[in-house]
Design a protein that fits this description.
Elements: H1 2-10, H2 14-46, H3 55-61, H4 64-81, H5 101-111, H6 117-122, E1 127-129, H7 136-147, E2 155-157, H8 164-177, E3 183-185, H9 192-203, E4 211-213, H10 221-233, E5 239-241, H11 249-259, E6 267-269, H12 278-289, E7 295-297, H13 304-317, E8 323-325, E9 354-357, E10 368-371
Parallel strand pairs: 1-2, 2-3, 3-4, 4-5, 5-6, 6-7, 7-8
Antiparallel strand pairs: 8-9, 9-10
Helix pairs in contact: 5-7, 7-8, 8-9, 9-10, 10-11, 11-12, 12-13
Length: about 375
Amino acid sequence: MVDGKKLAVEVPLPSVLEDDDAETERSERLQLGEQRSSQTEVDDVRGPKDQRSSPDSNVRDGGEGQGEEEEEEEHVTSDEDYDTDLELGGEEKEGYDLTGRTCYLKACEKLQVVPASYFLQNMGNSELSMVHHGLGPQGTKALAVPLVTNTSILRLNLRDNWIEGMGGAAIAEMLKENCYITEVDLSDNNLGDSGAAAMAGMLKENGTLVSLNLSGNHFTDRSAEHLGSALLTNTKLQHLDLSYNTLGERAGQCLGDSLSESLGLRSLSLAWNCIRGRGAELLANGLEGNVFLRKVDLSFNGFGKEGAIAVGRALKENCVLEELNVRSHPHRHGPQSKQDNQIPQYWEEPNPECWVLWDPSVLTGKPRISCGSAGFL
């Protein structure tokens, strides 16, 4: 009996063993779950396995990895701040285009005009003469783009290209920026009053232009108002040609007021206009007070008797003027003799078809009259 009790005590029943096994299994599962959760938290703190580095590698690198990252950031910054060959796709940088050839081709493409081969061939010369090339307003706008930065051309001749007011405005804007061109010929281009206004605005800002030819551009009295105000501020322009326009009586008044105070002009052509009457008198009064003009062409305007008397009075006072062209100025309507058709008949030495020349060597102050048919300048 004793042995049986010991066996009963030492050997648990199967049911008890099953309960113990289940309980042990549950405890092991709980422990395993806690270990997994704790391991997950550690992984979250440490980061993904492929991004973690072992302590040995960190110690071995000695912070070199961090230094390399900083150097890469510096390289990226420098690449963004400066142009590199990599950004150009391995192409070499183009040198600075002094003539403006590249921008001219781009301007022609944008404005849909055919590039002028003559311009491309001669844009590096000191003189560019493109007479009768049919540029038109758009072609002139394209031409003006490279001329802004062109440093070679000193004399520009665009006579008879029918550039109109739009093209004239483009040339005027170009001349505000260009400080190399000294002579410009825009004659016979139908600039009109808008073109005259653009030229006047340019003259108020340009300080290098010496000679400007605006002959044959359908200028009216309104054009003279713009140009007259510009002559008061510009002291660099020396030669101005306004011949073959439709300047009238009001133009004579505007230009006369400007000439009396102009400090730059040395020669002025107003031939073949319509300046007469009171405008002719005021223009002559302006010549009387000017001490800089050397040559003036007033031919074919129709000054009349009053204008002729005013011119004679101006010559008595002006001791600087050297050449004055006053051919063909009728003084009354109706049939006229050749002698009656000329201004000099109102002076001390009348002579038909004449140049009036002021001789600085003559100390008496009287004009010297010589016959001839030579043109202005």
